[in-house]
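Researcher: Structure prediction, please.
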Amino acid sequence: MMGQYRGFLLALRFDLFDNEFRLQLKGKRTHECSMGTSATGNFTRMDHLLTDISKKLSETQDKLQGIHMQIAAAQKELEKPFPEEQELKEKEARLIELNALLSTDAPNEEQIA
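Model: Predicted structure follows.
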């Protein structure tokens, strides 16, 4: 840990893949941005990162509200009766009959050998 910035713990790591230093702002989660050679540029990057956090939070809350609305709509759909239920029961019963007929008509292994 290098210190704190706007209530977040500040850390630095080197990314071998991108060959650059990365600033990490750590709170409940870790948020990261690339580090440049300019001190003011680095502060600007951190400020943008923090601004993006509040935008992402707002977007995520909107998505969550949408999901809650979808769940409520799905629960209403579950309460509706299935309109083809009687037809389904009839066809399932017929399928059972046909399977029983096929299994009695099929030659067993002793007859084949």
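Model: The longest strand covers residues 8-15.
Researcher: Thanks, that helps.
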